Amino acid sequence: MGRVSLLGYRPWQGTLHGAWMTPWPISRVALGMVFRRKLFWLLYLLGLFHFLVYFGGIYLFYQIDIPSLAGSNPQVIRFWTDTVRAIQEQLYMAGTKETYRNFIWLQGYVVMAVLALAGAILIGNDYQYGSLPFYLSKPLTRWHYLAGKFLAVALFVNMLTTLPALVLFAECALMEGWSYIENRADLLLGILGYGAVLSVSLGTLVLAVASWVRKTVPLIMVWVGILFFGRAVADSLVDGLGLDARWRLVDMWNNMYLLGSWCLDVAPQLESGRRFITRPQPEVWEAAVVLAAVCGACLVYLDRRIQAVEIVR
Amino acid sequence: MALIELEQIGRRFGNHVALHDVTLRLEAGRIGLLGPNGAGKSTLLKILMGLLQPTEGRGRLMDVDIRRGGIQLRRLIGYMSEADALVPGLRGAEYVALAGQLYGMPRGEAHRRAHEVLTYLGLEEARYRRLEEYSTGMKQRLKLAQALVHDPPLLFLDEPTSGLDPAGRDAMLRLLLTLGREHGKSFILSTHLLNDVERVCETVVILYRGRVIEQGRTEELRTSRYDRYRLQVEGKLGGLVDDLRAEGVQVLSATRGRRAVSLGPEIDAEIGENGRLPVSELIVLVPQDWRTRLFFTLADNRGVVIRGLQRDDEDLEQIFHRKIQETGTTEAVRHGAG
Amino acid sequence: MSPAAPVGGRPPILHFDRVSKWYGPVIGLNEVSFQLEPGITGLVGPNGAGKSTLMKLATGQLRPSLGVVTVMGKSAWSAEAKWHVGYCPESDVFYEEMSGRDFVRAIARLSGYGASEAADRAENALLLVGMSDQAHRCVRGYSKGMRQRIKLAQALVHDPELLILDEPMNGIDPVVRRDLHRLFFNLAERGKSLLISSHQLEELERLTDRVMVVARGRLLAQGTVTEIRDMFENQPLTVRIGCDRPRDLAGALLRLPEVLGVELGSGGMVTVRARQPQRFYRAFGQLVLEENLDVTHLETTDCSTQAILEYVLQESL
């Protein structure tokens, strides 16, 4: 028997799975949109700069054989030994907990720039081009939608912080051998913990700011205002005017830093110039409370802002 | 099982009553949702999609409770919005596949089906283009594609022909009719274009000021007027109108080029002596036992040609305005009594 | 189509004399000539046919590359001509923060009226389009139909002789649409000329049976729908006839030389394909009398704007 099948409409028989899967395609599309931008890769390369410095530094720390380098002249040996120690002391490149903490701290600026870009593309575009009704008219709730966007933001954060930090950890393990992993396994947890703190707080914050401002340029201005201006204010209040250390809580990035330090079990210190010196800092729990409050406020705001009511006009 | 059953659904926003006492029972089929702006159409659609909770009443859509259904409701419905609702940067096929995944299709299936639906809707060539490059007509088809991708039993179509040129509109309406008739899709077509509804829908629901003022099959809503005819006549009208009157026919109106013409002696005033004779339309009320043959006899006597003759049944436009007027009058009476 | 002589010696309200317009290598309008008659004229054609170009030339926003456009004898490009023309564009052209009333007033001021007269005229125009009670609100919050009506109000504010309306019924709900139809009839009654483009041909048919068909940058037809339809001599007419004795009718019809085919349908309906409409209808009238038939329905199914648009496009291939 022959068979004719015209190019007509065909029914589809299959089972639809639940809404829990929907954040994945949302975040995949979001990643695609950001990865297509050249600016993103430029910023990412910039972000890799610190990583390369650390990568090289750690390599040097393990590999440098001062006598062979400097011959037998004791003065030259002394010079090189001092230099290496200085690098170690000032930049903490010995694969200790400070290494990772400082590395992630230094990534801060790039992370913020990347997130300003991502926020504008991920959320701002959805408002501008009316994609929000497209998403929310599907069988999912706004929380699935936000989860999808959040996953994408978290990936950007981790691509710049946790991931390179883990590579550095692997490098140290290669250099030092199995003992490094055995002795410093807690660092792995610490890195992941710091990464989680960053993802959660920056993710909610950038989503909230992006859905508040929506347009690219104002978004970047607000974002810069919150993070960079916050830091400037905190520094001038605490370091300049000598006010209570709690004033530093307005600096969000610093709060994450405190929590991250706690994860990695390092005494919180702050960079100043070339050296890491101890500066007055609020308590870790205070920073945690502030972060939790800010994230909570962001979630409440998002709940109100991403309204299904906007869909059918 | 009815497609949609609503019992006394109401929705208020603060003091504003958007929907009041909406009771509906709609069977599967092609449904037109009509009403002026602010009549509550979009509020109703939102409630049916589980995006908005009614403040009063209860209802079911394909046996799913509309108060608790939420996600489940939207899985049954393919929604085509009036606004663009695109995701910039994606290609046509990616966009439709994304919709499929959001509806809950497995990734591979969504991808395969996206191509199938786009081909069916005549977007085969445009599948790999970016959405920014789509024309209005293509966007409308694309929006329909993303609503059809998971083969839902019910479609909500919000002004699907807006912005289309005549050929595009005709094609879209034919497509909808095929989907409804041959592929058993039910849909609710919400539009201001009553002709679109007249062409594709079997059932209409008219909303006005948050209430359902009429629902039913289009055929049943239409008042048949066995005694009224529309006549299209080529030539001068004067003599014919006189003769019709003499036979007991009431001439209700005359129009030429859609403009009303006075029925008095100046009826032919604007017709020049030479050149083409225009076609005019008369609406007439005939006496009982009238034979239409008489129209032709009278026309022949006066040397004019009948080019058309139809019963003056109401069209949807007239039904719509009559219903709205009736409602206005009832409300006025009620207010007067209260 | 020979251009009609100027009515009563006055120059025509809008006259295109062999007008072409191109944008760089892209041609928008290709040697178009016509005179607009008073009353309502529909402008139809597919997307990209040149309708908007034609309207912009008529309102003096564009200058023809070749040929002359005059409004009441004055070049459409001149300020005097613009005084007589009102234009309702298709796209949204608002200051979103302004209220509808302020917007119309501002346009009136730009037309050269003093503050108080501008306010009066704006109020009057808003009343005509039924927006008086909502005009205090910010344009940002307007629905599509409300925006459309404000655009219409600003076109009416200086009481122009010629109104060029680009898709004025877009997004307008049926209730408001009926009011606007009344307004258009009213304006036509007062001797104004309206040129209205629309994609919604059935809607347009309720307003007027006089159309201009534009496609591929050329004016392909102008006249009433019936006139244009009758010109397609070789496109047989499709007529549906309802009758008490359909078989007798069908037999009789086949004897008419104009009839090309007859088909018996359900419900006593006969579908006829015939040439030469004018002769066919005359012959049909005779046939009804000779055969003693009772005709319940007689309708040319392809004498609509939609149908003639299709034929014009087909024929001009």
Describe the structure in your own words.
Chain A is an all-alpha fold. Chain A is built from 13 helices and 2 strands. In chain A, helix 1 crosses helix 8 and helix 2 packs antiparallel against helix 6. Chain B has 2 domains: 4-221, Rossmann fold, CATH 3.40.50; 228-311, Alpha-Beta Plaits (2-Layer Sandwich). In chain B, the strands form 3 sheets. Chain B has a 6-stranded mixed beta sheet. In chain B, strand 1 and strand 2 form a beta hairpin. In chain B, 48% of the residues are buried. The model of chain B has no long low-confidence stretch (mean pLDDT 88). Chain C is of the alpha/beta class. Chain C has 2 domains: 7-228, P-loop containing nucleotide triphosphate hydrolases (Rossmann fold, 3-Layer(aba) Sandwich), CATH 3.40.50; 232-315, Alpha-Beta Plaits. Chain C is 37% helix and 27% strand. Chain C is built from 11 helices and 14 strands. Chain C has a 6-stranded mixed beta sheet, sandwiched between helices. Chains in contact: A-B, B-C. At the B-C interface, helix 6, helix 10, strand 15 and helix 11 of B face strand 3, helix 6, helix 7, helix 10 and strand 14 of C.
